[in-house]
Design brief:
This protein is mainly alpha-helical. It has 11 helices and no strands. Keywords: Antibiotic resistance, Cell membrane, Membrane, Transmembrane, Transmembrane helix, Transport.
Length: 278
């Protein structure tokens, strides 16, 4: 039995409403495909759940015991948890990059481009799936934090605002990951991981930039991750070592500016690169 589907009307000849519906439909189809792949990989789900537990045990109990915070009257894990939230968001670049690089290498992207579907829908679908996965990762990390004594103190509205800032940074990192995944071959993706981890360390994720050498402290304060982590610490009501520099005093503003700037740069680059694939 052969089923013949009617051809889709070319994008150029569709109305604005029809184009929007086409993009939404393709976005949902691509996002559903990526989410199904994620669900059917038990190892990936296990690693997403275990990462928060291992991170808290290592940084909160092993290294954290060496950090003297008794004079401040607070536990180091109060300072640590927002940093772990931010680190998990930035490390998501590697997840997006690997998925896009593998799809490109296996010809999946070429297959999509040969079909009558919106290129915007494909990229938006990928970003939507990654945002949903990141939402689950952050939620699991929050539950683990509550289990070890971390808490927020300024109301549920501030929690939602902090969650929004984390997803805003993750959205920017998605487009960076998509662009790199379209450029880098799968066998070279490990290089990116070796760069991502130090970048998350050169921030106020685990310690204050004021405790670092001056040049390293300046880099850490201007790290986009530091802005988001500093902002959500304030929204959660968690303690932190605030600096005297302009960027440290305006972390909430920079937590919005940095992701928007990264998105403005890498979104068009990713779309252009995808459309130019041979």
């Amino acid at each position: 039995m052969t089923l013949t589907l009617p051809p889709r009307t070319p994008m150029a000849s569709r109305s604005l409403v029809q184009r929007f519906r086409w993009v939404v439909s393709d976005t949902w189809n691509v996002a559903s495909r990526d989410l199904i792949h994620w669900v059917r990989q038990p190892v990936r789900i296990f690693s997403s759940v275990m990462y928060p537990v291992v991170s808290i045990l290592i940084f909160g109990y092993v290294f954290g015991n060496a950090v003297m915070v008794a004079s401040g009257g607070w536990n180091y894990r109060e300072f640590l948890m927002p940093g772990l939230f931010g680190q998990s968001v930035v490390l998501g670049v590697g997840v997006t990059l690997v998925a896009i690089a593998e799809d490109t290498h296996r010809g999946v992207n070429s297959r999509f481009r040969s079909m009558p579907m919106s290129s915007t829908g494909f990229l938006a679908g990928r970003s939507a799936a990654d945002l949903l996965n990141s939402t689950l990762d952050i939620a699991v990390l929050m539950v683990c934090g509550l289990a070890v004594g971390w808490e927020w103190r300024l109301g549920f509205g501030n929690v939602l605002a902090a969650f929004g800032l984390l997803l805003l940074l993750r959205f920017a990192m998605i487009w960076l990951g998509i662009f790199l995944g379209l450029v880098i071959k799968p066998e070279n993706t490990s290089v990116v991981w070796t760069i991502l981890l130090p970048l998350t360390m050169f921030s106020d994720t685990f310690v204050s930039p004021q405790t670092m050498p001056h040049w390293m402290g300046v880099i850490s304060e201007w790290n986009p991750l530091s802005a988001t982590v500093g902002a959500i610490r304030g929204l959660f009501g968690n303690p932190g070592w605030g600096g005297d520099s302009w960027v440290a005093q305006h972390s909430l503003l920079m937590a919005v500016v940095w992701p928007l700037a990264i998105t403005a740069v890498f979104w068009p680059l990713a779309v252009r690169r995808y459309r130019s694939l041979s």
